[in-house]
Design goal:
Elements (H helix, E strand, L loop, with lengths): L2 E9 L6 E6 H7 L8 H14 L6 H14 L3 E2 L3
Antiparallel strand pairs: 1-2, 1-3
Helix pairs in contact: 1-2, 2-3
Length: about 80
Amino acid sequence: MRRFSSPIYVKTDRGGLRHAVDHVQGAAKELPKWTRRGPRWHKAMTLCQSALEGDPIDPQIIRKAFEAAAKEAKMLVSSD
């Protein structure tokens, strides 16, 4: 499992709860659940898929792309 340096917290479909995503597989599983899919979403999804297919992509690059996608989709939650 390719872990992130620290988790990204995103909204869930249950109000008030957040979900911690701390690895590439978790990001790849979470992204398809989102209804807002802009350019940053597509970039994050492409990176996740490539990594899962064996491309040697640094997990921190995917973490950064996932965080940007979460902001774009208004799914990002503060880690506080």
